[in-house]
Design a protein that fits this description.
78% of the residues lie in helices and 0% in strands. It is built from 9 helices and no strands. Helix 3 runs parallel beside helix 9, helix 5 runs antiparallel to helix 6 and helix 5 packs antiparallel against helix 8.
Length: 235
């Protein structure tokens, strides 16, 4: 039990601590290598507890090979949310509104300002490490400790949502809670963490393609404005 408690503290406590420490500096540039090092370091610490101290397998947190149906369901969920997000950005731009939601704009702009390799790394890192630290490990271990699936699901989901406050606004947490809830539901349904990782990576991949999308929307808006200006000129 001691190993499990330590594992839970590492899984949910370390990311929350990192988020708290950077909460007051959300307007500055992202420290790229430190961010990746801290995230992977926390995840590897959890895996070390799992494999070396608890002496259990990755299957005990839902990482199992060959569950192709679950992986397809995860891919379908991720693609659906990604497509919906892209359509929302395009429709907002067409309606004359800001392409990015106000609550998310600052955080997304900080990510857009980073190199493409870092955005790829962030998407893959989040998809793997967050699913291990906020889904597979805590859900399974809390369920074993409490016998309550509600506690096992809601405690990690709450911590997962609040941990994003380190780089985002309070308003953005609504979307995080929604997405995290879907991923938690997917895990409880399929008990396959790889399916959740696939869905998570696809959902977050908007970060990768966002710069090109925003550039295209800006060019379209500028062209429309020029056309309107030309049309308004007296003949």
């Amino acid at each position: 039990m001691t190993a499990t408690i330590v594992g839970l503290i590492l899984a949910m406590g370390l990311p929350s601590l990192f988020a708290f420490l950077k909460h007051g500096d959300k307007s500055g540039p992202i420290e790229q290598w430190p961010h990746l090092a801290k995230t992977w370091g926390a995840c590897l610490a959890v895996l070390a507890v799992l494999l070396l101290w608890e002496q259990r397998t990755l299957a005990s947190i839902g990482i199992v090979p060959g569950n192709y149906l679950a992986w397809m369901i995860g891919a379908a969920l991720g693609l659906t949310i990604l497509t919906t997000s892209v359509i929302s950005v395009i429709q907002a731009s067409k309606g004359g509104k800001a392409a990015l939601p106000e609550d998310s704009a600052e955080g997304l702009n900080r990510l857009v300002a980073t190199p493409a390799w870092f955005r790829w790394a962030v998407v893959i890192t989040a998809g793997i490490t967050e699913e291990i630290m906020f889904r597979g490990y805590p859900i399974e271990r809390l369920y074993e400790l409490t016998g309550s699936l509600w506690i096992a699901a809601l405690v990690p989901l709450t911590v997962f949502t609040l941990a994003h406050l380190g780089g985002w606004s309070w308003g953005h947490l609504v979307g995080v809670l929604f997405g995290g809830g879907l991923l938690t539901g997917l895990y409880l349904w399929q008990r396959d963490l790889i399916a959740c990782m696939i869905a998570h990576v696809l959902i977050d991949s908007l970060i990768i393609f966002l710069p090109a999308l925003l550039k295209k929307l800006a060019a379209r808006a500028a062209r429309y404005e020029r056309e309107q200006t030309e049309a308004a000129k007296p003949s």
